[in-house]
Inverse folding.
């Protein structure tokens, strides 16, 4: 996979979440720090879907414990997880 | 293991704790406010005997510990919590057992931290676990310390798995005191059924908010838990039905709903446990969240026993799903369905595993497997549905809802509630056949059934719709992280604390309303009686019967779905399954089922010997022929009269005989003989058989027919057992009634008992008439004696009063010993918490009461104790119509 920047990772994740789980929502309201798991936007099945997306999209391999809220609660934390894996 | 004392508190809690110690009265008052609530709750726990006396003591220790702990510097807080936990162990188990629990626990924790590879550490833990299995299963005797294995099992069987998982995935901070605090949490010693607290969450939420706010939520949760436990008692004692009582659609609905509501015991207990942990800074999230108001199966799974759901998701669902998804050829949906299926398989398996640690036996029941299988299937379908029709999500808090969506939510709540009720009734059934037999009764619809069903469902639907908004916003992870957000946003909010505390105080005020105040008692003595009965933990009539049935037969898993019996059996030491063993008792293969064997002996489970006389009585030796001048009293009854667990000379009938002979101041009778024909488990019909077949040969002058609270129930149970076993019924009237009710060998026992239940008064009346007339024909005075069981009497005497009516109509003289145990505590009078037979003191109390009642009874005192009737005329006098003394 070609090198991607942190901003590109973040943008791709945001687009996916908006399209898949928040259709019709104002993109401005979904920021890097918007809580997704703790606010109920992402439940366990949705978290699974996001993790599958991250693996396919960025060619990384996640472990089961990386579906934890610590990694999946915000776009920022997901971006960090992906970028750490890509390093 | 790294020392963690330097960083026990982090985040806003640390700053707040430090600010508090430097602060003045403004900081002290909120703490005092919460302490007052905790003190009040401790009092309520004591008055209501929540979880027996041991928990009351632990709660008192918690109150003192809470105050001291709060003022300690952060570095000492975790060690102090561990100290409190160890003290709680000592308080409940005794010093030696507590030391063993700590020693074995330290060995297990130590094995997790050995400086060897992770795989070898796992092998070491498994080896230690296998050794514990051998002790808990009884393959290897652990002697007097056998009591520690269930406690250790409850502490380590799941938490150790989470701990190792988090260690492997570096999910939490590890340290000596933190680990000890995690495994030895103080409430665990009182509650074997304990929420599976996640280690990472345990660490992450420690003082993650303002300390006083953490404490306040602890007080609120304890109060919620206590209210739920009292509600549970009400449901358990007054609303729960026996499957055989189900006779219509309304009954079935009541059975299903009340079976579901029994879960209040678990929900209430978990609230109390987590609330107590909050008092020591562990700001753990809720264990249950409005579980009656789930609007889908997925929603239900996320609300009920949330810690379990999180445990399964972390250890099974996600790892399995990842493994399957990363393989070729398995679709996303396929992986989802399989991982849900495997999660539910493990849920069932691990419940059985947990059962083993608590009870030492294995749990394999068809309804159990059916319940988890069906629930797993429904959940998988529900998840697939949600995937296809993605539920509406929004970033706006609570926005975008309309009356249509609320109506839809209400309807979905009702449907989910109904489905869960049906599933729980299946889980609670003894067998699938029993469950189907109950449904067969539901074809009948009684007037009022529609109103009952409609009313309850409407209430559930309205509650679901009205509380929907807050439901939608709730998540476990959100709750786990809420403290940080709150603390970051605000400081201490007096108004918030005030409202939360007022809620706790209001709950306590309602619970502590004196039941004998003019307001309650004069408005309704019945209400006062109900309120009073809620203050003690006791078995309801149905479970008392199951427990007593278990004295004689191996009722495997009688307590499977029964929180009250589960708790009771959990406390029972191994080998105390309350049975008689030996040659002194044998099966008869007729209606009586068992009899005592002449000149043999047996042993009760408490080690006391049951010696049988040459004539087959649990008594002293008597001649068949009555000696001249002797007044002979024959006694028929069940186990409490036979003298279960006490020596021959300690039974109340022998104490009475001794008293009659030592206080015989008249020269009418040279001697009194009180002969004990009682056999454990005998009901009215068996007593009649004994009278006809055995008692009459001994030519008694008086018959004491000893009745207990199960007069109706034993008549029904024995007939159903006999018919289903192909044993012929001993009397024509019983044959006629069973034929009229269409009962034969193939009728399911639930249906058979349900059909016979309305005929029980008629059958008991016929048996009493036969006993009384047989006695009168032989010149024997029939006396009906009501014998209570310590701590096991039903809170209302409706049925018992009917027994008195039948006895009066039949012409018995009546002696009511109901007040025999007044003024003494139940524990002083019964064999054990799991065995309501009177102990030695109980028999003494019964004998004293019987003497008093005989002396107070005008006719019997005159005939038996007075000086008016010569011995040769006793029989003649007894043939005269009795002047019945009605009970008070």
């Amino acid at each position: 996979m070609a090198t991607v920047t942190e901003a590109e990772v973040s943008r791709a994740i945001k687009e996916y979440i908006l399209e898949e789980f928040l259709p019709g929502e104002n993109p401005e309201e979904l920021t890097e720090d918007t809580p997704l798991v703790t606010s109920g936007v992402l439940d366990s099945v949705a978290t699974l879907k996001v993790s599958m997306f991250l693996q396919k999209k960025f060619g990384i391999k996640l472990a089961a414990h990386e579906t934890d809220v610590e990694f999946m609660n915000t776009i920022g934390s997901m971006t960090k997880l992906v970028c750490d894996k890509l390093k | 293991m790294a020392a963690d004392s330097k960083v026990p508190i982090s985040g806003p809690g640390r700053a707040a704790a430090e600010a508090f110690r430097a602060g003045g009265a403004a900081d002290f008052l909120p703490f005092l406010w919460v302490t007052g609530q905790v003190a009040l709750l401790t009092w309520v726990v004591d008055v209501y005997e929540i979880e027996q006396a041991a928990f009351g003591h632990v709660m008192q220790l918690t109150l003192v510990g809470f105050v001291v702990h709060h003022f300690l510097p952060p570095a000492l807080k975790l060690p102090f919590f561990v100290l409190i936990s160890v003290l709680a162990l000592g308080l409940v188990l005794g010093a030696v057992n507590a030391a063993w629990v700590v020693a074995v626990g330290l060995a297990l924790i130590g094995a997790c931290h050995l400086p060897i590879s992770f795989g070898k550490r796992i092998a070491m833990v498994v080896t230690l676990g296998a050794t514990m299995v051998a002790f808990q299963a009884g393959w290897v005797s652990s002697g007097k310390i056998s009591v520690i294995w269930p406690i250790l099992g409850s502490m380590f069987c799941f938490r150790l798995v989470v701990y190792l998982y988090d260690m492997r995935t570096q999910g939490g901070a590890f340290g000596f005191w933190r680990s000890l605090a995690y495994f030895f949490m103080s409430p665990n010693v009182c509650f074997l059924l304990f929420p599976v607290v996640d280690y990472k969450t345990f660490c992450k939420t420690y003082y993650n908010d303002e300390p006083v706010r953490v404490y306040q939520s602890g007080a609120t949760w304890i109060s919620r838990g206590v209210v739920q436990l009292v509600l549970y008692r009400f449901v358990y004692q007054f609303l729960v039905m026996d499957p055989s009582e189900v006779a219509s659609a309304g009954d079935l609905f009541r059975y299903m709903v009340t079976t579901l509501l029994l879960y209040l015991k678990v929900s209430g207990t978990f609230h109390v446990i987590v609330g107590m942990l909050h008092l020591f800074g562990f700001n753990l999230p809720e264990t249950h969240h409005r579980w009656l108001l789930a609007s889908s199966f997925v929603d239900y799974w996320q609300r009920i026993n949330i810690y379990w759901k999180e445990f399964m998701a972390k250890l099974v669902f996600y790892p399995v799903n990842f493994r399957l998804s990363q393989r070729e050829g398995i679709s996303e949906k396929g992986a989802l369905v399989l991982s849900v299926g495997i999660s539910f398989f493990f849920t069932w398996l691990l419940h059985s595993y947990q059962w083993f640690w608590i009870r030492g036996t294995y749990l394999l029941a068809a309804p159990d497997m059916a319940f988890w299988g069906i629930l797993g299937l429904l959940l998988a379908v529900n998840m697939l549905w949600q995937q296809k029709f993605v539920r509406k999500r929004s970033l706006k808090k609570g926005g975008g809802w309309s009356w249509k969506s609320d109506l839809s939510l209400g309807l979905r709540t009702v449907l989910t509630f109904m489905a869960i009720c049906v599933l729980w009734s299946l889980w609670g059934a003894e067998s699938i056949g029993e469950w189907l037999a109950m449904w067969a009764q539901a074809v009948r619809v009684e007037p009022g059934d529609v109103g009952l069903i409609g009313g309850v469902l409407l209430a559930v639907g309205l509650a679901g719709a009205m509380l929907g908004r807050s439901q939608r916003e709730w998540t476990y992870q959100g709750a786990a992280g809420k403290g940080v957000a709150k603390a970051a946003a605000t400081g201490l909010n007096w108004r918030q604390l005030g409202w939360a505390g007022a809620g706790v105080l209001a709950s306590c005020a309602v619970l502590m309303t004196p039941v004998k105040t003019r307001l309650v008692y004069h408005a309704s003595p019945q209400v006062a009686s109900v309120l009073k009965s809620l203050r003690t933990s006791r078995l309801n009539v149905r479970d008392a019967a199951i427990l007593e049935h278990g004295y004689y037969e191996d009722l495997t898993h009688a307590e499977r779905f029964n929180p009250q019996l589960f708790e009771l059996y959990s406390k029972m030491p191994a080998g105390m399954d309350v049975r008689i063993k030996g040659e002194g008792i044998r099966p008869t293969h007729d209606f009586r089922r068992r009899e005592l064997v002449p000149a043999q002996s047996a042993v009760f489970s408490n080690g006391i010997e049951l010696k049988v006389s040459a004539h087959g009585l649990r008594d002293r030796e008597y001649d068949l022929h009555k000696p001249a001048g002797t007044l002979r009293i024959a006694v028929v009854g069940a186990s409490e009269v036979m003298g279960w667990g006490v020596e021959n000379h300690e039974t109340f009938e022998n104490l009475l005989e001794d008293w009659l002979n030592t206080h015989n101041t008249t020269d009418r009778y040279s001697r009194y003989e009180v002969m004990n024909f009682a056999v454990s488990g005998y009901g009215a019909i068996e007593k009649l058989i004994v009278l006809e077949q055995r008692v009459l040969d001994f030519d008694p002058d008086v018959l004491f027919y000893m009745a207990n609270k199960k007069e109706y129930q034993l008549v029904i149970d024995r007939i159903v057992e006999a018919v289903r076993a192909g044993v012929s019924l001993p009397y024509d009237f019983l044959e006629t009634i069973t034929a009229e009710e269409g009962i034969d060998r193939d009728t399911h026992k639930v249906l058979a008992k349900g059909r016979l239940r309305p005929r029980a008064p008629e059958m008991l009346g016929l048996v009493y008439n036969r006993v009384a007339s047989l006695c009168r024909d032989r010149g024997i005075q029939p006396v009906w004696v009501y014998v209570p069981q310590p701590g096991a009497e039903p809170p209302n005497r409706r049925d018992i009063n009917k027994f008195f009516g039948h006895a009066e109509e039949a012409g018995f003289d009546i002696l009511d010993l109901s007040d025999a145990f007044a003024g003494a505590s139940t524990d002083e009078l019964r064999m054990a918490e799991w065995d309501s037979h009177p102990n030695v003191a109980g028999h003494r109390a019964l004998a004293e009461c019987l003497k008093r009642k005989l002396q107070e009874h005008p006719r019997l005192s005159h005939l038996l104790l007075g000086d008016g009737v010569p011995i040769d005329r006793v029989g003649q006098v007894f043939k005269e119509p009795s002047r019945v003394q009605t009970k008070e």
